[in-house]
Design brief:
About 40% of the residues lie in helices and about 20% in strands. It is of the alpha/beta class. It folds into two domains: about 5-85 and about 240-265, Nucleotidyltransferase, domain 5, CATH 3.30.420; about 95-235, 2-Layer Sandwich (Nucleotidyltransferase, domain 5). The strands form two sheets. The chain has a five-stranded mixed sheet. The protein has a five-stranded mixed sheet with strand order 8-7-6-9-10. A hairpin with a 4-residue loop joins strand 2 (about 15-20) and strand 3.
Amino acid sequence: MARFLGGIDCGTWTTKAVVIDGDARLVGSLVVRTAADLAGAAERAFDGAIERAGITREECAAIWATGFGRTNVSFADGTRTELDCHARGVHHYVKGAVTIIDIGGQDAKVVRLDAQGRRISHKMNRKCAAGTGSFLEEMALRLGTSIEDFHDLASGFTEELELGSFCTVFTGTEVLTSIRQGKRPADLARASYRSVVKRVLEMDIFEGQVVATGGVIAHHPVIVAMMEEAFGGTIIVPPHPQEMGAFGAALACLHEIESVRKEDAS
């Protein structure tokens, strides 16, 4: 059995790297900003992941990559699509038929899996970044706070407001108009979260087991609470939701190695 495997999810907003052992347990991970250097971000993320795992890169039997910049990860031994990796990662933790909601920096995905973990359908958000992490970053900027403090700001809301614009740019203008009208930043932050939820729930009908992944889910738990309230069900948040794509890439790598070993043994 392979001792360690690596997975890298090189996204438009952040790059995630994980190391798993031969039993598919996550033993090290790191998330870094991607910025304009996809290859450099992958190197930094994976170096950090193996350092946290307490191993060297040579101890990894193989490394697979996924995400927007997967072809820029020169040291990867293979690649998989984001849809495949998120499906693998979620199915590892949540058995049975599920609907996955993944909210990332610049896109949102809804992926349906059957009871065996096979992907049966998927939908992506529209071209606009509304309903994603970059939308929240823009709203935080407009309201004069950091994205790290945005959740705390919204928790102090006293009035439920609604942002009507779909486009991120137009919503920013709408927020400025609301500020001029005397609306509180906390209430507008809360409305920004509600806008993300509305955009995501417009993408599909949600029923049965629903699982949420992605950086927005990891850092903004109010999104999960709002979605649960909106469709009247429970949402499962698996371990390390932001690193789920990278974890799925490592799992795909492990499964490939195990399949080859079984073929050789037969």
